[in-house]
Amino acid sequence: MMPTGGGPARAEALSVLRGLIHQHTTRPGLDDLFAAAAEEEANLPPWQQANLREMNREWVRASALPLKLVEAMSQAESLSEQAWRRLRPENDFASFLPLFREVVRLKREASQAWAERLSLSPYDALMDGFEPGARANQIAPLFTRLRAFLPGLIAQALERQASEPVADCEGPFSVESQRGLALQLMHRLGFDFEHGRLDTSHHPFCGGVPTDVRITTRYSTRDYSKSLMSVLHESGHAKYEQNLPSAWLGQPVGLARGMSIHESQSLLTEMQVCRGRAFLEFAAPFIAEAFPDVATRAPEAFTPENLFRGLARVKPGLIRVDADEATYPCHIVLRFELEKRLIDGSLQPEDVPEAWDTGMRDALGLSTRGNDRDGCMQDVHWPAGLFGYFPAYTLGALTAAQLFRAGRRALPQLSEQLRCGEFHGLDTWLREKVWSQGSFLSTTDLVERATGSVLTTEAFEQHLEFRYLQRESS
């Protein structure tokens, strides 16, 4: 809601605030306190050992950076993001480039400082800030497998869906009706409205703290499904936050376990559950009731089968946030490869548009030459300095598929429960395996304990083949 003219002052304020936080986090004497705590660690209960581990991790990362760098990064990233919001619609990469160069320069400096302190590569040090323990040499084989698997899957899915038309439904779909439908399904999903709410913004988002979780979405009167699926996606994030262990509230061990686990909860809700046939059999009557005029004109549009087909369409496109779940990883792999090169210096900021175009043509056969707005300028992440964040999206998709497969095995009646709009069984399983753990376990241990296996692409591949080539049977 901030007016554009408020940007410079906001950037300065954030720089000062982050500097104060940094000074507090790295104040003299903490090194002695952590050293003393380490000597007593064996006498602590397991959850306090994990708490100490997380506090030490935060302190080590903070103390690796000098105050002036923290303040400079904050200001550069704020100004860059604000300029990006104005320049992206104008497709003006040239005007954005000086700001982008400064963000990259400072992030390279910070990544080097973290790398030296943590004994990691600079890019691993950046990823570790979003997904503790994430390493490029572990992620690369997963992404290589997806690059080999996805082109064939996408081609087969496109061929199959060409013979399975979808009945279109034309709006308008009023914002009021869309919001009412979203609230209704959020209630059924188990979103706690005493500790959260739904609002409107330019981009769907979930944020806040476990006792006050805010979801935002955006509406289009031409297509209700984008807003609805966004709300259901963000509800997965929200339910994770709302169900973090209350006994550890406000402590590091009580926080969510990294961005890939957070993303797994939103994608499990949206992709595994809410785009599945069982859930759509439950939701179809509510959707039709929300838009009675459209349902009267085109009742076939709101059948569970048609809704399923409409929500399970593969369509290669330029925009990551609009991508289907089969093509989405191609967008992430491209960003993963480019930002690694940006950080190690083998790719310079001015060369990003050309590298992006080459990568998109290789991945999806689409060109962005001369269209930076829908190419390298489409995401806020790099303007805001969030290098190392992107891999968490696809790691989250892999984790969601693996968790849901394990959940189905543990809950033989799950499909029937979802068909009836009953989420208690799945929620109970997720609460035990994921939500209640906070940051007690590492990501690797959490996934392995919940699913019985380290993270692989197998469950995700099976999910895509089942949904897009053989169709769901439940």
Overview of the molecule:
The protein is mostly helical and 474 residues long. The chain has 2 domains: 4-119, no CATH class; 133-169 and 180-189 and 226-474, Orthogonal Bundle (Neurolysin, domain 3), CATH 1.10.1370. It has helices at residues 7-25, 30-40, 46-63, 67-87, 93-118, 122-130, 136-162, 175-189, 224-242, 258-274, 277-290, 292-297, 304-311, 328-344, 352-364, 391-410, 414-419, 424-433, 443-451, 458-470, and strands at residues 196-200, 205-209, 212-217. A 3-stranded mixed beta sheet has the order 1-3-2, covered by helices on one side. Strand 2 and strand 3 (212-217) form a beta hairpin. The radius of gyration is 23 Å and the shape is globular. The model has no long low-confidence stretch (mean pLDDT 96).
| Regions with little confidence, pLDDT below 50 for 5+ residues | none
Structural class: mainly alpha
Q: How does CATH name the architecture of the largest domain? A: Orthogonal Bundle
List the domain count as a whole number: 2
Summarize the amount of helix as a percent range. 55-70%
Rg calculated over all Cα atoms:
23 Å
Q: Which sequence of strands runs across the widest sheet?
A: 1-3-2
User: What string, H for helix and E for strand, traces the elements in order?
Assistant: HHHHHHHHEEEHHHHHHHHHHHH
Concise overview:
By secondary structure, the protein is mainly alpha-helical.
